[in-house]
Design brief:
Number of domains: 2
Strand content: 15-25%
Order of helices and strands: HEEEEEEEEHEEEHHHEHEEHH
Structural class: alpha/beta
Number of strands: 14
Shape: elongated
Number of helices: 8
């Protein structure tokens, strides 16, 4: 009886084990149908529905120097026509495509003055695909580049970067570009940058502090003392700032088609950078991106000095000779400022480190 019970138990155990293995094999076959391949037949001839989650493709566009490229046109294409999309890289050089159907894709990046760059891959279900940096090379022998984004749009994105640049996070540092191949500004953008500078709260603080020192030293004695004297000194100082900024940085820069910004070098020997900074007090980039004499800055200093004769006290007004001397002083001061930009201020400008192609 015990032997019969034991034999029956063993037979039952083999039956259960065989049934479990068979069920496991069927489950494995069902799972082997990848949700990535819709319509694949399962055992028995049935179609297994596919459940695929959309994904995201993102990346960053830079140039060969490592500087971020804003306003680059990024085109996404794939087998599925609904996948085709286009975006512009942001001020930080980044782009992103959300809610993308999984599958093969190709990216094409174009920007004015650069050769097109392509990349391809396969986006999997629910994946966030972060691509390696898209490095654009300067196009060789390009006389005309047909792209979807205009030069004005590119310059506008780059101005947004410059408007965030502040020394120690406070003092405006708008007139320096850490993007070596920055798009030239049109007249509207030059006036916008000048206006942004003269209405900045820090500008009023600096002018106000200077007026207070002048009053304490009884400088420009013809203005007198008290609130009225301070107001006249403040008004004269602010008028100097406005006239100097607008005449040299906007009016003449527009008429002469010159770029009023300092283009940070950041690479090469210290001697080459020193000479570059000094030279930029008398030369500048034209709107054609070629170096030329900085007439807008030189003549702007002379013009601003001449205009100041309209509102300073008679005994403090400059003669013509002194006006030209002050213009020369302005050029020297510009050279000193450029040296600070090249060797000091970049390190003190937090937002600049994100766009600087050079190393401190």
């Amino acid at each position: 009886m015990a032997l019969q019970f034991k034999s029956g138990f063993i037979a039952l155990a083999f039956f259960i084990l065989g049934w479990a293995l068979c069920a496991s094999g069927q489950t494995s076959e069902q799972k082997s149908v990848s949700p990535e391949h819709p319509g694949e037949a399962a055992p028995g001839g049935e179609q297994v529905p596919a459940y695929r989650l959309s994904g995201t493709i993102r990346g960053t566009v830079i140039d060969q120097s490592g500087a971020l490229v804003a306003g680059a046109r990024v085109s996404l294409t794939g087998v599925d026509q609904s996948l085709n999309r286009e975006v512009l890289s942001g001020s930080d050089g980044q782009f992103s495509f959300a809610s993308i159907v999984p599958g093969p894709f190709q990216l094409t990046v174009t920007s004015a003055g650069f050769s097109a760059q392509t990349a391809s891959g396969i986006l999997h279900s629910g994946e966030i695909e972060t691509l390696p940096q898209m490095v654009l090379s300067v196009a060789a022998n390009v006389t005309e580049v047909q792209v979807g984004v205009s030069q004005v749009e590119v310059a506008e994105e780059q101005i947004k970067i410059e408007e965030k640049q502040r020394v120690l996070g406070v003092i405006p540092n708008f007139y320096v570009s850490y993007i070596p191949n920055a798009a030239p500004l049109n007249s509207k953008q030059k006036f916008k940058l000048a206006w942004k500078t003269v209405i900045d709260p820090v500008t009023f603080v600096v002018v106000g502090g200077t007026a207070a020192v002048e009053q304490a030293q009884n400088h420009f004695i013809g203005y007198g003392q008290g609130a009225q004297g301070y107001a006249k000194r403040f008004g004269a100082g602010y008028a100097d700032t406005v006239s100097g900024t607008f005449i040299g940085g906007a009016i003449l820069a527009s008429l002469l088609k010159q770029d009023p910004r300092y283009f940070y070098k950041g690479t090469g020997s210290k001697q080459s950078r020193f000479l570059y900074a000094i030279a930029n007090s008398v030369i500048c980039k034209g709107d054609n991106r070629r170096w030329q004499a900085n007439y807008s800055n030189i003549l702007g200093n002379v013009a601003a000095g001449g205009i100041s004769n309209l509102y300073y006290p008679a005994q403090d007004r400059d003669s013509a000779e002194l006006t030209f001397e002050n213009a020369a002083v302005g050029i020297v001061a510009g050279a000193f400022t450029n040296l600070l930009q090249e060797f000091v201020l970049r390190k003190l400008t937090p937002d600049a480190s994100k766009h600087d192609p050079g190393k401190p």
